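Protocol step 6 of 9: fold each sequence in the batch and record its C-alpha cells directly after the sequence line. For illustration, a two-sequence batch is reproduced in full.

Sequence one:
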Amino acid sequence: MRRDGPAFTPLRSWTARRLLLGTAQTAAVVLLVFVLTEALPGDAAVALAGDQPDPARIAAIREAMGLDRPAYVRLLDWTAGLAHGDLGTSLASGRPVSSYLADGYGPTLLLAALTVTPLVPLGVGLGVLAARYEGRLPDRLVSSVTLGVYAVPEFALGTLLITLFALRLEWLPPTALGYGTDLLSHPAALVLPVLILLSRPVCSLTRLVRAGMIDALASPYAAQARRYGIAGARVRYAHALPNAIAPAVQQLARTVDWLLCGVIVVEALYVIPGLGTVLMNAVAERDVPVVQGLAVVFGVTTVVLNLGADLVARRLTPRAGMAA
C-alpha cells in the first residue's frame, strides 16, 4: 500500500531539511573547535619541553608534532583524519585520542544511564500528578519543591549532601577516589553523584510536563473527547499526555546531551574519572588534540540528540509540525 499522500511528503521534506541542517551544524562544529583550540593561550611545545625549556628543544618538539605547519594545513589534515575516524594523537602522552575517550566514556555513560533511568518516570509522573490536581495541595507541593531544588546550584547541593550523608552520618563515601573506572563494584559511591545529576533535570521535566498537560487538558479536542463520554483517564493519558511530552522530549535530549558531554562539576566534586575529568586534564596540559577530539565528539552528540528529539516531537505532535 503506497503512502505518498500529502501528509507524508512534508514529513520527508522536513526530515531531509533537518538532516542537511545537522550535517551543516556538524561541519560548523568541526571548524569552530579548531579555531577555538588554536586561540587557546600558551604553547604546547613549551609545556612539553619542561620547566626550563631550551629554544632548540622547543623547535624540535614543534617540528615533530607538526606544530610548525600553517594552521590551514593542520586543519585539512585533521578533518581528513576525522573522516576516517582518526581523532588524532595526544601531544602529552603519544596515545590516540580515542583511547582517552574509551577510558572516560565508561564512567560518564554509567552516570548518564543511572540518572536517566529514574528521570523519565519521576519527571512525567510528578508532572501528570501536579496537572491533575492543578491549584490544589499536590500541585502546590510539587511546584514548590521542584522550584526550590532547581534554584540550588549543583556544587552547593553536592557539598551539602557530602557533609550530611558522608561526613556526619557516614552512610556513603564522600568521593569515588581510589575506585578507578570500576564504579559498578562500588555502588555506594554512585548514590550522591546520581542524586546531584538527577536533581535539576527532574525539576525541569516535571514543570514542562505539568504545563503541557494543563494546556492539553484545556484544549478544544480534550473538551470534545469528554463530551463524547470518553473516560477521564483515557483523555489524560491517550490524548493529553502525548502532546505534553513533546516539549519534554526535547528537554530530555538536552539533559542526555549534558550528561554524555562530561558533567565537569559533579565529576570534579566526586573525583570520577569521566569525560569531564579527561577534558579538564587536557586543557591543563594544553593537549590540543585531546581537547579537539573531545569537543568534536561533544558537538556531534549534541547535533544528533537534538535531531532525534525533533523527530520524536514531530511524531508525537504531527499537527504542530504541519503548521511549522
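Sequence two, same batch, same settings:
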Amino acid sequence: MVSPSDITVSSRVSAAAPLPGHLKGSSSQGPDDDLPRIVPRRRVGRWLTAAAALLVVAMVVNSVVRNRAFQWDVVGRYFTTAAVLDGLLLTLWLTGVVMVLGFLLGTPLAVMRLSANPALRTLSWGYVWIFRSTPLLVQLLFWFNIGALYPTLGLGIPFGPQFVTVKTVNLLGPTLTAVIGLTLHEAAYAAEVVRGGILSVDSGQTEAAQALGIGRRRTLRRIVIPQAMRSIVPTAGNMLIGTLKGTSIVSVLAVHDLLYSVQLVYNQTYQVIPLLMVATLWYIAVTTVLSAGQFYVERYYARGSAGALPPTPLQRLRVQPAALRARLQRATAPEARPAVDGDR
C-alpha cells in the first residue's frame, strides 16, 4: 500500500528530473535552451589524400591509354584470336588440374605430418622440405630430363623380373611433365595450408567427438575439416591465383599455354609489347573472376563464425547511393529548432 507521503516525494522527484530530448519541445522553454547542433568532423587529410591518389591513378591511366607504343589496335585484333584462346584454355586446364591434384596429395601429407607415427611424420616433413627448397623451374627441368636418369620404367617384383616396361621418352611429354612437376610442387604448399587449417580448429572439438564415440576419420572428415575451411580457403585462393600465373613458367618446356602462344605470335610479327599486353589483360580478367569467387566461398564458410556476414559488392553498391543521398539531405537541410509554446 502506498502512503500519501510516498506519492508526494515521487512527484517531486519526477518534477525535478530532466525531460528526455524528444519531450523538451513540448515544455515552455525559450529558444536559448535549444540543444547544440552536432557537426560531423571534417576530415581534410583524408579528402586530400584521396584526391592525390586519384590524381596519380588518372595520370598513370592517361599515360597508358594515350601511349601509342602499346598499339591498342593490335591488342584488340589479337585479343580473341584462336591461338590466344587455345593457350588460355590450356592455362585454365593446367590450373584446375594442378590445384585439384595438389590438394588431393597435400591433404594426406598434412594428416601424416600430424600423425603420432614418427615414420609418417618424417616422410611428410621430408617431402615438404625437398619440394619447397628447390625452385619450380629446376623441378620442371628435372622432370623434363628424367629420361636421362631412368630411360625405362617397369612394373614387376622388386629386385626381380619386370613384367611391363615402357620408355620414359614415350611416356612423359611436355604437357604431362608440366602437370607432374606443378602438382608435386603444389602439394608441398597445400600440405602446409591444410595442416595450418587443421591446427586452427580448437582441440575441444576433437575431444567432444571422441567423447561421443565418433571415429578419428569421421571426426576429421565431418567436424575438423569443415571448420578448418575458414582458414584454408583464403590461403588456397592465393595459391590458386599464384598457380594461374605460375603456369606461365611451363613455356620453357614448349607447352602451348597462354604465354607461349603469345610468344609464338610476336616471334613472327615482332609486335612484342601489344602481344604481352594481350596476355596481361587475360591474366587480369581471369584473376578478377577467381578473386570474386574466393570472396563468395569465404563468405559461405564464415556463416557459423560471424554474427553478420560481410556485405557483397552488389549490396554495397545498393547501399552507397542511399547513404550518399542521406548525407546530402542532412548537409542541405536547415537547422532544426525544437518547437516552443510561443510558436504554436
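Proceed to step 7 once all outputs are recorded. Observation for sequence two: The CA atoms of residues 89 and 165 lie 33 Å apart.
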